[in-house]
């Protein structure tokens, strides 16, 4: 997902001595060739195709009611899924770092299940859980709540596939937090809630925000898990990724290109947001260390 | 004398009630959100006993999908390992302008929806694409066939090995390689005898993640493969086909194979991290990223 994990300090290249290690041209050449053919060529082709559509053609496609509805559905469900993960992820990270209990190692390993499990399998599993006679679907039906084939199902699918993001960004910051800060606050008479609100949460906040943005970005592009459970009705449960797919199947390549390039733009925007948050995060971490 | 550390320290949220409430809430949510989806796959697959499961699994079309998935992984994973080593070598053993940009491009596929990746590939090799007319004139089939499945899988997995190797190789520096070169070793010997043994666990882990993603990729592959029954449906696509055709048991049986791969990957991760700790190799903090 969008994130620059490692950045070289600016100017390091000039100060470092020339390397005596061989293989610079070969390794860099192979890397550029692979990235060019596998990553940049298709992105370039997509941009070219979208440029063919023309400005007014693009506007007409993007502002068509069905496209706008799919964007609205995708963004609101992704936001709801990110909200769930913000709360659950923070709680999970807290429990994993602060408490000792049997099965803690197992729980820590379980957090990565949504990344390892293929999205189609996740979608199939969630559909089974929320089916009318499913483990969750049957009790919910008695309350008159339908999740499968409704927007709530999309939220569930998106929430499941992005569970690890908040946990894995908050966890290391919480681990590195110095106990002296809390002690000092406690000595000064602050209650636990005040310490959490005034001392702990502000320290966690950049990482927390970065994790939540990552979860949101991932949910915007999710496809496999959602198509199983969503029911895929236009104007109700049709996400942008699915609409792109449908336009392709209708041989409407202009519309597919226009919608795909908009998703690409949205992904780049999220990438910038996450990187900005992360830079802030690193700076605030350095300020304290 | 050992100082009595952390004995009477006040830590927020350590009260018995807070602890009980938080633990209960988090564990209950985990049971519902993480464990139930995993459990329901196996519960559904084995709902009618083992022999029904085995029968539902060994359908010819599912077996064909498994074969296609294995071939794709057998091509993609070694290529990704090769690319990962080359990119990590270039970026960590040499200083050149644009290294951060290069790494940003490597990570780009993580930010792009698999559907967008699939559409982009159609616009390169499809009938409407950049090379479409040329490929048709020479009767070369890429889209809706194995080559496109492999290419799209390479796109979505491009970052996997690199992002495991780079932080570790950067932390290890260049001293050992420089010493080996000054003793007369050539580049490939340095790579084989010095660098790779130092990063073998990270390499294995990256390869395991790459494998899991290749085998489970759905969105990108479903666009470029055409999902032709019994021909270009990989295992993840086969699950959807079976489910749409109301072969629910067969769909869950096929899903257990991929769920098994996922669980195997997590066990591998656990073992690799333990081995890293045992060797005292400081594992770089694993960051989220799919």
UniProtKB/TrEMBL annotation, chain A:
Protein function: Part of the ABC transporter complex CysAWTP (TC 3.A.1.6.1) involved in sulfate/thiosulfate import. Probably responsible for the translocation of the substrate across the membrane. Part of the ABC transporter complex (TC 3.A.1.6.1) involved in sulfate/thiosulfate import.
Source species: Xanthobacter autotrophicus
Cellular component aspect of the GO annotation: plasma membrane
Pfam families with a match to the protein in the record: BPD_transp_1 (PF00528)
Full protein name: Sulfate transport system permease protein CysT
InterPro entries in the record: CysT_permease, MetI-like, MetI-like_sf, Sulph_transpt2
Membrane topology: Multi-pass membrane protein
TM helices/strands, residue ranges: 24-48, 68-97, 109-131, 143-167, 199-217, 253-277
Alphabetized GO MF terms: ABC-type sulfate transporter activity
Annotated family: Belongs to the binding-protein-dependent transport system permease family. CysTW subfamily.
Domain of life of the native organism: Bacteria
Domain ABC transmembrane type-1: 71-274
Keywords: Membrane, Sulfate transport, Transmembrane, Transmembrane helix, Transport
Compartments it resides in: Cell membrane
Subunit note: The complex is composed of two ATP-binding proteins (CysA), two transmembrane proteins (CysT and CysW) and a solute-binding protein (CysP).
SUPFAM superfamilies: MetI-like (SSF161098)
UniProtKB/TrEMBL annotation, chain B:
GO CC annotations, alphabetized: plasma membrane
Pfam families linked to this entry: BPD_transp_1 (PF00528)
Transmembrane intervals: 20-42, 62-89, 101-124, 144-162, 202-228, 248-272
Chief location: membrane
The ABC transmembrane type-1 domain, residue ranges: 66-267
Keywords annotated in UniProt: Membrane, Sulfate transport, Transmembrane, Transmembrane helix, Transport
GO molecular function: ABC-type sulfate transporter activity
InterPro entries per the UniProt record, alphabetical: CysW_permease (IPR011866), MetI-like (IPR000515), MetI-like_sf (IPR035906), Sulph_transpt2 (IPR005667)
Taxonomy, superkingdom: Bacteria
Phosphoprotein found in the keyword field: no
SUPFAM superfamilies named among the record's database cross-references: MetI-like
Bilayer disposition of the protein: Multi-pass membrane protein
Stated role: Part of the ABC transporter complex CysAWTP (TC 3.A.1.6.1) involved in sulfate/thiosulfate import. Probably responsible for the translocation of the substrate across the membrane.
NCBIfam families: 3a0106s02, permease_CysW
Quaternary data: The complex is composed of two ATP-binding proteins (CysA), two transmembrane proteins (CysT and CysW) and a solute-binding protein (CysP).
Protein name, as recorded: Sulfate ABC transporter permease subunit CysW
Gene (name only): cysW
